[in-house]
Write a structure and sequence with these properties.
alpha/beta; Rossmann fold; 7-stranded parallel sheet; 6-stranded parallel sheet; 40% helix
């Protein structure tokens, strides 16, 4: 039976104490399903997006085990390894362990790039209970013999789909090969594509399955719109939207997504020059720069954050009222994660996507994966009706040329580019 209150979960007193202080009363669906299974020692395959509470879903059972079975960790070793795709997500996971483990005796360190490795090496020299790491820096320190994974009891692979999107498959497989065979493994992904399921089979033993969201869904409370316009119309429309957002009541923060790092820098600089306080975050920024930008954004000091897809995961800011896709992503799954930065924690949000002529195919692929057309927003002076018509005709052509199948004619479209 799924517990309906945190008090019903068989957690240790120190964990219940911190949950009461945080005023956590009702577990989220993934917490209610995952925590009892993990307390039983089961491996877990979880399908859940960020913002569903999955970090507490795995952190609480791990902290419970560390509390009930304390033991000395050998130098350079760790009892728990959490692998995350980005520095931001690693930092958030580490913060969650610190928060939930307030009354539990345990040691933790974070290992990721963009900062000096000396403090990380020094922390690992003593050994830690919880190590949260990104793949690249972790393998660097393993190769330098600063980290030994032979003591890992709990292995968490978080945001697996993003990990694979970023090209970490080979790194992940190498890290898994260094883990002891006897361990409890947890595998979380927002989508369960065949490649992800195949990877899970190599990592998990007889896992329990928890699926909170259907494969690639978009939040119901997000008002999605698409604008058809020329590339030169994007800047003035962006400024119009930002001006309206700054004058609106409620959530004032906006994330603008750019496809490239250079584009993000250029756009943030030009917005500042036009009177819109903005900052950019992307993979070329140092960790200190990224953390400073996020902190200023959360406080509303720079209410516009221009980001590449590095910010589509792991950035959980509750007051984001508007997401603008200045450039449509060339990976359709990224659209879901981008717009998921708004409408957090039950709030409502708006997502506006700009589509120029060279992005029509991207839009078609996005609408296929979210299984719905994105409503058009034409009430702006840069609207190009011929582009909107081309998109509509393209969808009609795809439907007309779909190969009939045994499912009532609903086949795969031949018009999709390979």
């Amino acid at each position: 039976m799924t517990p309906t209150a945190f008090e019903a979960l068989p957690l240790a007193a120190p964990l219940h104490r911190v949950l009461r202080e945080l005023e956590y009363t009702t577990p989220s669906p993934i917490q209610a399903q995952a925590i009892p299974l993990l307390l039983q020692g089961r491996d877990l395959l979880g399908c859940a997006q960020t913002g569903t509470g999955k970090t507490a879903g795995f952190a609480l059972p791990i902290l419970q085990a560390l509390h009930e079975n304390p033991r000395q960790v050998r130098p350079k070793g760790c009892r728990t390894l959490v692998l995350a795709p980005t520095r931001e997500l690693a930092a958030q996971v580490g913060k969650s362990f610190t928060t939930y483990g307030k009354y539990v005796r345990f040691s933790q360190t974070l290992v990721y790039g963009g900062v000096g490795q000396v403090p990380q090496v020094n922390a690992m020299r003593r050994g830690v209970d919880v190590l949260v790491a990104t793949p690249g820096r972790l393998l660097d320190l393993i190769d330098q013999r600063h980290i030994d994974l032979s003591q890992v009891e709990f292995f968490v692979l978080d945001e697996v789909d993003r990990m694979l999107d970023m090209g970490f498959l080979r790194d992940v497989k190498r890290i898994v090969s260094l883990l002891p065979a006897k361990r409890q493994s947890l595998f979380f992904s927002a989508t369960l594509a065949p490649s992800i399921v195949d990877l899970a089979r190599t990592i998990l033993r007889d896992p329990s399955h928890v699926s909170i969201t259907p494969e690639t869904t978009t939040a119901e409370k997000i008002d999605q719109q698409v604008c058809f316009l020329a590339r030169e119309g994007k800047r003035p429309l962006l400024e119009q939207l930002l001006r309206a957002q700054s004058n609106a009541a409620g959530q004032k923060l906006t994330i603008v997504f750019s496809r490239t790092k250079h584009g993000a820098n250029k756009l943030a600089k030009s917005l500042c020059a036009s009177g819109f306080p903005a900052d950019a975050i992307h993979g070329n920024k140092s960790q200190a720069q990224r953390e400073k930008a996020l902190d200023r954004f959360k406080k509303g000091l720079t209410p516009v954050l221009v980001a590449t897809d590095v910010a589509a995961r792991g950035v959980d800011v509750k007051d984001v009222g508007l997401v603008i896709n200045f450039d449509l992503p060339n990976e359709p799954e990224a659209y879901v994660h981008r717009i998921g930065r708004t409408a957090r924690a039950g709030a409502e949000g708006r997502a506006v996507s700009f589509c120029s002529e060279d992005e029509l195919e991207y839009l078609r692929e996005i609408e296929k994966i979210i299984k719905m057309p994105i409503p058009r927003w034409d009430a702006h002076e840069w609207h190009i009706e011929s582009l909107a018509d081309r998109h509509t005709r393209g969808k009609s052509f795809a439907s007309a040329t779909a190969k009939p199948s045994g499912n009532g004619g609903r086949g795969r479209s031949r018009s999709r580019r390979r």
